[in-house]
Predict the 3D structure of the following.
Amino acid sequence: MENLLITILLTSIPILLAGLGELVTEKSGVLNLGVEGMMLCGAVAALGSVLIFGNPYIGILFGAIAGILISTVFSFFTITLMTNQVATGLGLTIFATALTGLIGEPFVGKTAASLPKLEIIFLSDIPYIGKILFSNDILVYFAIFLIFFIHFGFQNTKIGIIIRAVGDNHDSAHSIGYSVKLVRWISTSFGGMCAGMGGAYIPLALTPHWSEGMTAGKGWIALALVVFASWMPIRLLIGALIFGGITILQFVAQARGWDVPSQFLNMLPYLATILALALISLKLRHNNYAPACLGKHFLGNK
Amino acid sequence: MIEFTPRKIQSSFWAILSPIISIGMTIFIGSLIFKMLSYPVMESLYQVFVSPFSRPDRIADIFVKACPLIIIGLGLIFCFKANIWNIGAEGQFILGTLCAGSFALLFPETKTYMLLFSMFIIGFIGGAIWASIPAILKVRLNVNEILVSLMLVYVAMLFIDFIVRGPLRDPMSFGFPLSKVYPDGAIISKVDFPFIGFLGQFHYGIFIILILCPLIWLFINKTLPGFQIKIFGSSTRASEFAGFNKNKITFYVLLVSGGLSGVAGVIEVSANMGRLQPEVSFGYGFTAIIVAFLGRLNPYGVVIAGIIIATAKLGADNAQMVLGIPKVVTGIFEGMLLFFLLAGETIQKYKISIRKDN
């Protein structure tokens, strides 16, 4: 049981990290549909750097940098050149899927070192929950920290409020002197960094070898989770854990020998995403909490 | 400081020029990538863009490859004109194929082409049903159609995999995940050109584009529903004032787009494979998005764009065989092409000037 809960937590980390990043990006009014592509970039950069340097922490760093770099392509086109955000995000995923396929080809069949578990003294000895919560790798702690960081950041810090202002009413934010485009560039880069780290987590902790398109739709699920969480970081954790659980279900079913074709179990995360989106829309039909300027261009020369 | 001033009149000159410039820039940056990966640049470009034209049968195969891309792209025109983002054409393609294929396998030994005709209808319905899921959710609950249509791609892929490995697997396939071969009446035959004979895989299914393309052009440009779709896409407010039914438009554009994807699948499989297998589409549904954009959402443009992209796809196959360049580079080109096309739209919409800040 303990192991099962740990596995659920670990499986949810890539979606959680990518989702948190996208949440910040969207709060600033930018809809980046390239999460899947940015995660792949993070994954391939992490795997490659670990194979070269042998240190999994370097992998996190390179994953984050790769995520930021690829997100600047998106920022340049959508924020500076004001291209359509949906189509550009889609282009980013097509581009990055192919690029990582090309870069990752030499890594096929090689195994990368995994992130070590860091046990927190005393806390990890607490019965039942100690092992689950306090004996994990660094990115798990980081992801949990990030939830609260973003939550309080948006509530209580000036930067957080500026980001929200830009996302909710860019004309007002502009007229009181904030650079809308700069705030959006930074928020999108933050999203890229988180997606890169989320992608990096897959080879560094879950499946230590490269396969083309190894994120298997996790980026898209992360995008859906942001909507599901109504742009609230703590709800994002709940959503990510549910998806971790659903993903793990197929392994449980295999281990227990349930007589369900594996394809149907593999479908569950995708079907659950659709169901989750439908349920949340049903509940929030009149107020969906979306940033008011989400996906809108800012001309910036008034 | 770069300044964007909206243009009052959008220049039609740019509308034609921007795809050409975009292709040029993609080729330019593509050559830089070849250079970086230390492949011979000219030879690589020759293989990708020219070698598909080097023999008559290869030219014929361009049309074969372009056929599904064009048919899906023609359907996507409806969605994208209406600003509805159906990115799940891949799943609608698979489901249409699966429905039509299962139907064909119910009637073994059938010779009459009535079977093929019914498969077209069933394929259309199958694709439309798959697209109706995001359509209903969008209309009823305002659920984002992008995410739902994409999630259904994964579901469709897993579903056909299950069907071909399970219920429809041919017992004589030696363990391969293949269905039985379609009956004769479900096969689209190759074209036997007078004096020349067969050219590559060129088949009769391709001719459907000759009917579809002008039909869709007429529908969009000369009928009221076509006009409504255009207005709905460019200004939701204006279309509301005009009293257009928002839900109806959203629903039908998705249905038509899904249906045409299904038809594309029926043609592809009946002409080239003749049986169901786990992989019936090779990313056609996603590539068709680029085709629709490159064709500037104009039916004739989509046909040309489909031919261009198909050329590059076949060229990439040649480049892989001759020079060992991994085939995935086409995806890099497609992504870049989309970026440049979108940037071209900005130039068309805005006048860009550089202002000095003091």
User: Anything to note?
Assistant: The radius of gyration of chain B is 22 Å. The longest strand of chain B covers residues 197-203.
